[in-house]
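Case study: Large ribosomal subunit protein uL22.
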Amino acid sequence: MEAKAIARHLRVTPMKARRVVNLVRGKQANEALAILQFAQQGASEPVYKLVASAVANARVKADREGLAFNEDALFISEAFVDEGPTMKRFQPRAQGRAGRINKRTSHVTVVVATEEEEGK
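Here is what the predicted structure looks like once written out:
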């Protein structure tokens, strides 16, 4: 069984979000949640919520299909970060100039699966 969760327009740069996602890719879902709970990076909180959402989506999918659900069997089969839209802002600088500030956003996707699904 496979379940997906997507968070779009996160106000964290894709480079910083990728550092956090790389910590948990391929790990068991419970282990990934424990790692993210104590990670120091600012992007760890939205990624934690996203992994928890993917696990909840798997639980709902299993209930809908009438399958037995075991949270310990879930692992993160896919996790990636794409770049979202960039908000462009301007900061006044010396001698009438303006400096551009890019406020980047991210689209984060997490897919959890069971071991049987990975074998197929």
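For the exam, be able to explain this: Residues 44-65 form the longest helix (22 residues).
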